[in-house]
Design goal:
alpha+beta; eight-stranded antiparallel sheet; 2 helices; globular
């Protein structure tokens, strides 16, 4: 009976923790291609972000939802002819989905910042941004998704606490396995 009482208390506590935010976020990663519209310059990149942005009718502009960013450009008509960006080179980003959860805009902004080579990026239209240097716009790039990776489970701190509490209260010897879901992503890359 005492075990049953402990089980009931622990289950209630675990349920309460679940209600106040004990859950698992998942990170979504997308591989991107950047195509110069005025020159033969090209680029590739990867972004990682909270997969909550993949829901229908989402507008994400919060910078903390973008957890990783890498972009590399080659064939630029100015020196240096190649450059790269990472998350610290940006000040904001935009990610938008439509009612079918198709991605309708991915964009990046450096707003007053430059990378180590003196280049900057600034979104100008859906899936379109300018890459500039001190002399002005070097090229305008279109963004397209080349590959959508399966989201990866990332336990949130409160989830780890809830799991530790559950294991401690029940003396469970084992590993709690998180669910993995396969996201089917689509991308709308129509010209603005």
């Amino acid at each position: 009976m005492k075990l049953l009482n402990k089980f009931g208390i622990a289950a209630g506590l675990a349920a309460s923790l679940s209600v106040i935010g004990v859950n698992e976020a998942e990170a979504a990663s997308l591989n991107l291609t950047f195509t110069g519209t005025n020159t033969s310059a090209t680029g590739t990149g990867t972004i990682t972000f909270d997969d909550a942005a993949l829901a229908p009718n989402t507008f994400t502009g919060t910078f903390d939802s973008l957890t990783a960013f890498e972009a590399n450009f080659t064939g630029l008509p100015t020196a240096p002819s190649s450059t790269s960006f990472n998350l610290s080179d940006l000040t904001s980003w935009v990610f938008v989905t439509d009612s079918n959860a198709s991605i309708t805009d991915i964009n990046f902004f450096a707003r007053g910042k430059t990378n180590t080579d003196g280049y900057s990026v600034e979104g100008t239209a859906p899936n379109t941004f300018n890459l500039s240097n001190a002399n002005g716009v070097v090229d305008t790039f279109r963004v397209s998704v080349t590959q959508a990776a399966e989201p990866t489970s990332i336990p949130e701190p409160s989830s780890a606490l809830g799991s530790a509490l559950f294991v401690t209260l029940f003396g469970v010897n084992g590993v709690l396995k998180s669910k993995s879901k396969k996201e089917q992503l689509s991308f709308s890359n129509s010209k603005a």
